[in-house]
Input
Amino acid sequence: MSNQAVRYVTKSAAAAAGSIGVAAATAAGAVAAAALAASVVLSPVPDAASRMDGVHADLLRAVQLNQITLEQAASFEAKLAGRILG
Output
């Protein structure tokens, strides 16, 4: 076999091995994403009071980071309370 042919075969084999590695990593990522999605779907739904506690904490954090004003947080929390608490 010529020198150029050997180089081509070597490069092709290395590229194929790299492709297999990428495919395996992609498959592992897909399995991990599916497991995460299943855990979210199958997790118990928190009650309304704990949901509102989480909303309140998130809005306070946003106020502390100057992302929204205290008035905006209060207004948004009131809207969500109406929807969540009914």
The chain has a mean pLDDT of 79. The helical segments are 3-42, 48-64, 70-85. The CA atoms of residues 27 and 33 lie 10 Å apart.
